[in-house]
Amino acid sequence: MFQSKSSLFKSNLFIVASIVMVTFILLFATEDRVGLTWNEPDYIVVSESYSAWFGELFSNLGYALNGNGIDNYWTVNHEHPPFDKIWSGNAGESRFGKSNACLAESTNAPI
């Protein structure tokens, strides 16, 4: 009548994995229909700025780490922790280049 802990764990793991797979399939099957929401333009500008700082970090370390370099790239937005914007900027640029920032921002946040 009762399931063992191992069996229950496997059952729950299967459910979670199924939900994750369906989510990714739906996300990527419909990604060409993603629209721009009211706050994405701000996030796109910020994520591109943060991503550009990482490029500067590898090409011009001295400037990237001095006060002017940090202020130039990191003072665009102070509202949220930057990890999501860093992720969107770097992952979006590697997946979509500069061609579709809206799509990059919309699909990277859920990932």
Please write out the topology.
Elements: H1 5-29, H2 40-59, H3 61-65, H4 67-74, H5 83-96, H6 101-108
What attributes does this structure have?
6 helices; 111 residues; 72% helix; single chain; mainly alpha
What does this structure look like?
The chain is mainly alpha-helical and 111 residues long. 72% of the residues lie in helices and 0% in strands. It is built from six helices and no strands. The longest helix is centred in the first third of the chain and has 25 residues, at 5-29. It is elongated, with a radius of gyration of 19 Å.
Question: How would you summarize this macromolecular structure in one to three sentences?
Answer:
With 111 residues, the chain is an all-alpha fold.
Structural class: mainly alpha
Number of strands: 0
Helix content range? over 70%
Number of domains as seen in the coordinates? 2
- The amount of beta strand, in percent, is under 5%
Backbone shape: elongated
CA-atom Rg in angstroms: 19 Å
Q: How far apart are the first and last residues' alpha carbons, in Å?
A: 38 Å
Question: What integer is the average pLDDT?
Answer: 76
| Biggest pleated sheet | none
Order of helices and strands: HHHHHH
